[in-house]
Design brief:
The radius of gyration is 19 Å and the shape is rod-shaped. α1 packs antiparallel against α2. The longest helix has 35 residues. 3% of the residues are buried. It contains 2 helices and no strands. It has one domain. It has 76 residues and is mainly alpha-helical. The model has no long low-confidence stretch (mean pLDDT 93).
Length: 76
């Protein structure tokens, strides 16, 4: 059996790219429209990061459940 983690790897790569783009960003706390737009963008990006992390987790578990019937080790 060959494990196919390509979906999970692609998701993790996207996650890493978005993390790198957001890392170190200065958030504008000013009560201006521009500040509000930036805070909304950052908030949505953080939610998207959470989604990507969960998606990668699900993709890994999909591979695990495909592998499980072929696992010959016993838990007793």
């Amino acid at each position: 059996m060959q494990l196919d983690l390509s979906k999970a790897r692609a998701t993790v790569q996207e996650l890493a790219e978005v993390l790198a783009a957001l890392d170190g960003e200065e958030v504008d706390d000013a009560p201006t429209r521009a500040g509000q737009r930036q805070r909304v963008r950052v908030s949505r990006t953080l939610q998207h990061l959470d989604h990507l992390a969960r998606k990668a987790s699900v993709e890994v578990m999909d591979v695990f459940w495909e592998f499980k019937p072929h696992d010959t080790t016993r838990g007793d």
